[in-house]
């Protein structure tokens, strides 16, 4: 049982973030986010593509710089993630597998040792078995799923206090994914470690979370809430988390379509009779007839 007086292990206050880039009129990706997660919790972030989940995780990982005006706070283990980044935090995201360095002709054994694998041999070996990784693989000659397994061995072989996961199980087969989640749950329970996990794959996850949260268009619709509160959900033949996520995502779609009916830019097919400039240009070079 967590101490209600204890400070949150993961904490955000008044967090707003905008991806400016080339678009000076960009909408905020995160809007006045405030929440806290207790030590030892395992929270599943649910939300449609573009809800702000990845941006939130990247900010906690210190990968996106934010303005700290207006009382904005972003902290892990009581430390500001930009001014005094805490030790023991691991972030695993999908962009790693696209890095040309990890697609080079390097043997997995050498790759893991180059990042300190020899210092964590017991946990490294346990993860090699769980993730079914061959130390003699060449990184440039393996599949995306196998490369993802190597990433997970690399990221998890050292003991972590806080784990930020952004869709990193998407390439794993169902058996390896289940074994990995069992390992992470036990690691969290045994050491009081904290997990914040954004995913779109909900089957087989009912036993994993302590909390769930729902994001929509840069805001929390449902702040992190104890998973036990959803025990009476009508699931039909589906898993409980799948059923909760499916209902939330349907509500997200209906909400967005309501905004589109009131002037927000519409997704999907463009309802217009006049050909766009792009259609006019490329149709001149269509030699398929």
UniProtKB/TrEMBL annotation:
Alphabetized Gene3D superfamilies for the sequence: P-loop containing nucleotide triphosphate hydrolases
Top-level taxon of the source organism: Eukaryota
Domain ABC transporter: 10-242
Region (Disordered): 257-277
Any one GO molecular function term: ATP binding
Keyword field: ATP-binding, Nucleotide-binding
Keyword Nucleotide-binding: yes
SMART domains in the record: AAA
InterPro entries, A to Z: AAA+_ATPase (IPR003593), ABC_transporter-like_ATP-bd (IPR003439), P-loop_NTPase (IPR027417)
Protein name (database record): ABC transporter domain-containing protein
Organism: Antrodiella citrinella
